[in-house]
Amino acid sequence: MAGPPALLLLFLTFSLFTFLTESQLAYDYYAKSCPRFEEIIQETVTNKQITSPTTAAGTLRVFFHDCMLNGCDASVLLSSTAFNSAERDADINLSLPGDAFDLVTRAKAALELACPNTVSCSDILALATRDLVSMVGGPYYKVLLGRTDYRISKSSNVEGNLPRPTMDFSKIIQIFTSRGFTLQEMVALSGAHTIGFSHCKEFKSFLYNDTHYNQRFAQALQHACENYPKDQTLSVFNDIMTPNVFDNKYFQNLPKGLGLLESDHNLYDDPRTRPFVEMYANDQNKFFQDFAKAMEKLSVYGIKTGRRGEIRRRCDAVN
């Protein structure tokens, strides 16, 4: 078993590798190689969000599922082949929205015309997510650029490594802390549920015996999901108060029993995370500040640069 010196050496080696990897990134990475990069992303994002208002929440979710597994490397965008089942075909990723994938495809096509073989799919996803969050009322934060795209994507690596709303709450916490995120950062990132929706299958089993729900809310959800599983597309907004606006209403809903998912209720019920829920419910500026910092941290988690990845010509297939 490794002693303290060996563990210290391992930590220092990992820290140095992380520093060297991040040092290859820059906020203006494409200033010379693709000057219209940010403009093209902004145009694509605006057009897509106007025509499909759920794009912001969907893209944020895809970005999270990409980053939390192996890092922000666009591996979730890869399609399965006859020889490999990719991440996006894992059970938990089957409900990832098509609008997010379509957005990245459109942006990639435009960028390939403007500056061929220059911009990575992972950078497209990272910047598009930031722009969409800001567009629906959320905080603006800086995004370092210069990631490359990973060539490996396996559905078998997904289970147990992404948080499910029905998971034991301590397991969800472990998923975040093992990746270097604090409890406060976990709660801040959970605030992403202020936009978007969840399918009935994610919470229906709790509606009849979970006392955390507001009773009238539970009855309304039972009615909304009464045709499930016959219609598995049935879904409900995560935040019933302001579902299309990025704000702190999600946190204000939890003490009232208006959380949608079991993991939402656990955030408020667990004494380890309740203080942060209460803080963000009372102070939207603090939530925005911490969410922005957590997203900046998440966006460089596990990134690949240089020869560790590639610049894909198509975001759904390796070169």
TrEMBL record:
Residue positions binding heme b: 193
Record keywords: Calcium, Disulfide bond, Heme, Hydrogen peroxide, Iron, Metal-binding, Oxidoreductase, Peroxidase, Secreted, Signal
Residues making up the signal peptide according to the UniProt record: 1-23
Enzyme nomenclature, EC number: 1.11.1.7
Binding site for Ca(2+) 1: 66, 71, 73, 75, 87
Compartmental location: Secreted
Transmembrane segments: none
Record's GO cellular component terms: extracellular region
Residues engaged in binding Ca(2+) 2: 194, 239, 242, 247
Disulfide bonds: 34-115, 67-72, 121-315, 200-225
Ranges where the Plant heme peroxidase family profile domain occurs: 24-319
Domain of life the protein comes from: Eukaryota
Cofactor(s) annotated in UniProt: heme b; Ca(2+)
Free-text remark on how the cofactor is bound: Binds 1 heme b (iron(II)-protoporphyrin IX) group per subunit. Binds 2 calcium ions per subunit.
Stated family: Belongs to the peroxidase family. Classical plant (class III) peroxidase subfamily.
Protein name, as recorded: Peroxidase
